[in-house]
Amino acid sequence: MNYLIPTIGLLTVISTFLGGLFAIKLKDKLHLILGFSAGAVVGVAFFDLIPESIELSSGVFDVSLNTLLMACGFTFLMILDRAFSLHFHQECDCENESHRGTLAATTLVFHSMLDGFGIGLAFQVSNSVGWVVALAVLAHDFSDGINTVSVIFKGAHGAERVGRKSRAMWWLIADALAPAFGIGAAMLFTISAPVLGLILSVFTGFFLYIGASDLIPESHHHHPTLWTTTSTILGIAVLYFVIQIAG
User: Which position has the higher pLDDT, 235 or 4?
Assistant: First the structure.
């Protein structure tokens, strides 16, 4: 498993960085990719993380604890989203928007590190689970790169607009490196299977919120829903078949 760590870490860096570059160059062409990412993240939560987390914890913890932790993970990300305005398409032009943009970018970096930590934990379950989770995170990292650049651009006013591209690039680099740090941190210790199941339940809540309340609305913003909905369904279907093949 050790040889996989630098490979997946590098892929997360590339995915996030590409998302940021696309946000700078082709922001209006991203709705289909965001729709597919939404489906991929939701598909992993339903088809992989939920059954794995319950199976790992069974016999030690009641399934109600798993579902409670899923709800807690969902609620935690919802609070972060509401507090720091992580959605790049919001129209607010308030006076403290630059400060909010920095807070949002900081939160996205922390969020990306948690994504990497989730990949590392998934590989502790098995290589197949690790790769499935990694695929979903890679899809989501692309959106993270988009959001990181966009919240910085959105928060720039007046003289700040001159250097906003350079500032956005620095934040993008930080967000791109964060999942790799998270993967490395998860590899530093071993967690027992029942406790690992509970932690995966929290990440299930994360993934459900990301897909249902973040990526899907963004993929529909100012675009017809037909093709973005098709992309989301395709993302769910692709991850279902990937998980079935992975066993």
Answer: 235
